[in-house]
Amino acid sequence: MGTSVIGPGKLLGWMDKPKATRMTSPTEPATQRNDGALKGVALVVAATFLFGLSDTVSKHLAMLYAVPLLLAVRYGVNLLLLMAVMMPRHGTRLWRTSRLALVLLRGACLAAASLSMVLALRVMPVGETVAIIYIAPFLVMLAAGPILGEKVSLIGWLAAASSFLGVLVIARPGSGLDPIGVGLCLLNAGCATVYHLLTRMLTRTETTMAMLFHTALVGTVVFASFLPWSLGGAMPALFDAGLMVVLGVLGTVGHLLFTAAYRQAPASLLAPVNYLHIVWAAILGWLVFAHVPDGLALIGMAMIMASGVAVAVLARR
User: Fold this and answer.
1) Is 105 left (phi over 0), alpha (psi -120 to 50) or beta?
2) Pick from 291, 312, 292: which is nearest to 137 by CA?
3) What is the pTM (predicted TM-score) of this model?
4) What is the mean pLDDT of each run of 10 residues along the chain (317 residues)?
5) How far is residue 167 from each of residues 107, 185, 187, 196, 301, measured CA to CA in Å?
6) CA trace torsion 110, 14, 302, 275 (10° rounding)
7) What are the structural domain ranges in the chain?
């Protein structure tokens, strides 16, 4: 699936939540509820690590090969895995939809977000890139008011302002970040906002598996169509070709872990854990590319993370 864009969608406690979310009963033993919560948190920790690893591998490959080639392989592997694993269980329900046009539009938004994300990673550090795109949940929150009729509290508005200020601190003049890369990150956030708003609308009529299938299908078709213009450059060596396949596996497993997590525990409990994605991205960027964010960039990342956690805790209460 698309790099990084799914994680932020769940931060506000209601985006892309599977319909089979596990509900707890007042009579359910406390130890059983706690076990479910711990399992859910552990699954999200693992999923965010896989997404951070995917971002890091994407940056490595994007600096060597054509981005459409990279994304075509990644989405293609994702599609094949979904069909191999899910079709025996779901049959034709895997792709059956009620509002196909909106489902396909949602997939196109994710494809655009993936393209802008990987292009940004070519010229931007992993940690700063992931931090900036995490402004998307706040854009969703603000847009959900006029579009979906959902009320935004004062704390929500303050958190959104703090998050945006955090982005400005990270991408300030003199930070050394590529302005085009920053613009691509903001484009990613815009595409992710539309993607998650469509998800919010479609979860009322569509299954999670059908939406996953069509996002993989749209991404595969879109990026495969660019292959005739992408094969003129360097072809990947065997190891790098294997990494492209691994990207598809990482995305698929990460999304399935998220689905399993939200069946174990409430979205509002798991939402703050999603921000570990920024931490994993910064750590992996340091280990692989020897990039350490400067002090102000770290402050900006902390502002975005704190704002998201505050909104998530408020939603839980």
Assistant:
1) alpha
2) 312
3) 0.82
4) 46 41 49 70 90 94 91 92 85 85 93 95 92 85 74 76 86 82 93 88 84 91 87 78 91 83 74 85 92 88 84 67
5) 26, 10, 13, 20, 8
6) -70
7) 6-10+30-316
